[in-house]
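BACKBONE STRUCTURE TOKENS:
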Amino acid sequence: MESLEATLNETLRLLMTRTGRRQVDVAEVIGITRGSLSQRLLGKSAWKLDDLPKVADYFGLTVSELLSGYAAIAAADRLPPAKGAEGQTRI
């Protein structure tokens, strides 16, 4: 069974890829550097609970959805719009 932190990290990487958001964008939302976010996504630094609502809101999700994993978000039809090849958002 995958740890909650590993699920969160994978989910965030997949959400960033889907939406075209960069690490620097997400880091700015929670008030940390891109390097600090990278360390969290790699599992080398722990997430702070206070950051989760900010990240969830940024992607239009609840904290519960964010922690449930990408597949569960997709199954609930709650994925944010995807970014198209030309940089346009697709629904």
The mean pLDDT is 93. The longest strand covers residues 82-83.
